[in-house]
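Section: protein folds

Sequence with per-residue tokens
===
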Amino acid sequence: MSIQDLIASAGDRLTPTERRIAEEVLKDPTLLAFGTVSDLAERVRTSRPSIVRFAAKLGFGGYPALQASARDGVARRLATPGERIRRQPGAYEHIHAEVERALHRTLGSLDEDRLKRLAKPLANARSVLVLSGETSRAGAVVLHSGLAMVRDHVRLVDEHDLARELSGAAKGDVAVVFDFARYRRAAVTSAQTLSACGVDLVAITDGPLSPIAAMTELWCELEVPAVGPFDSSLPAVAAAELLVLEVVAQLGAAAERRIHRLEQLWSATETFVDDGE
């Protein structure tokens, strides 16, 4: 169980001081992973015994055990594919549980209110740019494919096309940026450039420490488990599908007319193989 999950499960049992400790840990997990008891106590302006009691409240035998768990969580997020091959358990049951938990948390984090807020600019913008890092590209492709079927002016931006695509972006557009640790420089700098041009940003990322989340209030946090050496694409794909569904709901009749027109064009151009052939 992650530190975030442990804090959530113990939330109603935490004292006011322990709540302050939890807030600092959630804001900066690296402080817990790499700082000493004194570092954390100084940040929260509390005592060392309070930090030890906080660790016990989360179910750990002491601060070193809590810190080891936090370090493992940070390391798993930042490990290279080669390191993951050496460290990742290969059992199907383990991978199944990790992916199932991540999908469950994705569905939980993208509740109706958040989906409506994230989808609103995608339905109303002049144009939509979809950008991603390499390992988050599956979600970006699904979002682009779905949105392009229900509204005009949706573009999936490849890294080699960044300069050309960014040159025409302006206020009234929206950019959806998919990226998770380890964050891609191109995705981050592109988001910064677009934001400076007045483009609204929607970030699909992995938490408040993400450099993309820091640029916008429209973001969602996905848990992205490792499947072998690489990050799983399933949470990002699920998030993309939910966003498309909500955009369709917000567009209403306009989306229906566009899909009907697409069906007519597919039929006229014999896009699909006839069952009788």
